[in-house]
Amino acid sequence: MMGLALDRRNLLLLPALLVLLLLFLGPMAYFFVASFFKVSLFNLVPTWNLGNYQKVAGEYGLPIAYTMGISALIALIATVLGYIVAHVIWRNPGRWGAFLLGATLLTLFGGYLVKIFAWKTILGREGIINNTLLALGLADQPVEILLYSPFAVVLVLVSYLLPFTILPLYGALRAIEPTTLDAARDLGASPARMLWDAILPRCIPAMLTAFSLSFLVSAGDYVTPRLVGGTRSLMMGNFIESQFGLRMNIPLGAAMTYSTMVTSLAIIIVVWLVLRAALRPK
Amino acid sequence: MIALARHGLNLAAGLALLFMLAPLLLVVVFSFGSSDVMTFPIPGLTVDWYRKLFARTEFWGALRSTAIVSLSVALAATVIGSMAAVVISRMRPKPAAASTLLFGLPMMMPPLVLALALLSAFAVAGVKLSLLTVILAHLTFTMPFVILIVAARLRDFDYTVLDSARDLGASPLTTFLTVTFPIIRPTLLGAALMSMALSLDDFVITFFMLGGGNTLPTLVWGMLRTGLDPSINALGTLILAFTLGTSAIALWLTRFRG
Question: In this structure, which of A25, A37, A171, B22 has its CB flanked by the most CB atoms within 10 Å?
Fold first, then answer.
């Protein structure tokens, strides 16, 4: 038997390991260490202290809570809607399902900024919705709440994240063995019972993937709130980003980033526990 | 009752589809609309917005930078990722899953976090920001996709054809060039195009890693901040055509189905 470490073939892994180490794990570790440093006259001072975290806890408690709340809402809507689409694709192997799947795959990679911009033109004061409403006489004046509101942030991010939630859920549905469903049907389970007891429990890992992905992307986003959220719906991403412009306060920015990530992780774990408790395979 | 529920589901899926596609369709439609206010009905068709866009000098600079970045990223990510995939595809299931997860970590990180960690690390290491730092940063989140796609293909690879080639006296290099490579070429090309699409679409990381100048997404950002000029629609349509085109070919080549 040849030892894994001795096989010369394993050298092929080296470049990828270097990329991971030097461009990801190393920077992330340094970023963490820097969150305990201080900044003085725009220079990093390596004196260990918890000042940045105290500042985050004192000043950014509310923005973190708001970010977590709105991200959880976005992730929830995206996961539920994503499940519905995945379910329809799964149950319709014909053209309709293929069309839905194709459209989902196509929108997956295309135009993050372009999509946000498009929503801006749809929702704006002189946007498509308002102009149509006015032209049809359904409104006397433009509806202002559409753009520059938390509503717009939720709408735009759900639209952007839907393809990312549909694909893992569809993958999980496709992996369910038909015999499982036949057995449930033969035993007299109603469609609702089958969904709850046989189908959904088998989608728990995919649901968690879909939820976590959309939650993390939302919690770390600063472009959407900046472009369509208005001044009252700034999220943690905006506050973090603002530490890196002219101010360049890396330690505080890093502490804000790690606080947000740890809180996000805690919420994802809670969601996982809830999902596991609510949906037991029967 | 059940039929009603099914119609309801189909309707919901249709609306969700519209919700995903509508913004993209509108950008394309309005890029050819002759009015500079974006409303229906469109008074007429024109290519003026494209003409206006092409007349900007910064467009050509941004296009050049985007081409350099996305092509370099595609090449580097595919070579490095595929080499890793060769090793991972030969591991036992458990270490293979663990490696895929480890290499996949950057893919799960919000782009802002990745960008800021790299920015801080480059600052302390004294690395000057340039197109090179953009390329290096893009490598971190495109490489996991290449590893996933190529390792999946290599797991189904029929290794007996390699043994035949070797038995017939081909050197390892000849075997690779004449047997292995032609067989996995569509997958490699697909993985390269997928990394290219991901790189093309990235704004957040590029924005922080780019010292000066523009790529196409940062140009969109600049135009967005100076007002809603309809030539953004033309630029948006071009970016969409690039990313959707490359990713559509990539999906077809790799037969990637979610």
Answer: A37
Percent of chain B whose predicted confidence (pLDDT) is above 90: 31
Q: Is residue A221, in this structure, part of any structural domain at all?
A: yes
Q: What's the mean per-residue pLDDT of chain B?
A: 86
A71 shares contact with chain B (CB less than 8 Å): no
Domain positions in chain B: 58-254
Q: Which amino acid does the sequence have at B199?
A: S
Residue pLDDT, tens place only, B123-146: 889 899 999 999 999 999 999 999
Tokens matching residue A191 = 């469609």
C-alpha distance from residue A143 to each of A130, A151, B23, B175 (Å): 6, 13, 19, 67
- The b/e string for A119-143 (b: 16+ C-beta within 10 A; e otherwise) is bbbbbbeebbbbbebbeeeeeeebe
Which H or E run contains A40? strand A38-40
Inside any domain, residue A187: yes
For residues A27-51, average pLDDT: 85
User: Which of A114, A221, A243 is the best substitution to test chain B (most B C-beta atoms within 10 A)?
Assistant: A114
pTM: 0.87
pLDDT band at B64 (very low <50, low <70, confident <90, very high): very high
Q: Which residues of A touch B86 (CB under 8 A)?
A: 9, 12
Cβ-defined contact of A30 to B124 (cutoff 8 Å): yes
Pick the CATH number of B58-254 from 3.60.21.10, 2.40.50.140, 3.40.50.10260, 1.10.3720.10: 1.10.3720.10
What tens digit of pLDDT does each residue of B17-52 get? 888 888 888 888 888 887 776 666 777 788 888 988
- In chain B, what residues touch A227 (CB-CB under 8 Å)? 224
Nearest to A107 among B20, B81, B228 (CB): B20
Rg (CA), chain A: 23
Is A245's Cβ below 8 Å from some Cβ in B? no
Give me the residue from B103, B208, B224 closest to A227, CB to CB. Answer: B224
Asked if this assembly's ipTM is beyond 0.90, the reply is no
Q: Which residues contact B187 (CB under 8 A, 6 or more apart)?
A: B149, B150, B153, B253, B254
pLDDT digits (tens, 9 = 90+) for B43-56: 778 888 898 889 88
Report whether B19 contacts A157 (CB < 8 A). no
Residue B145 near residue B198 (C-beta atoms within 8 A): yes
CATH number at residue A109: 1.10.3720.10
- B20, A163: Cβ pair inside 8 Å? yes
In percent, the amount of chain B with pLDDT more than 70 equals 95
Residues of chain A found within 8 Å of residue B38, distances taken between Cβ atoms: 121, 127-128
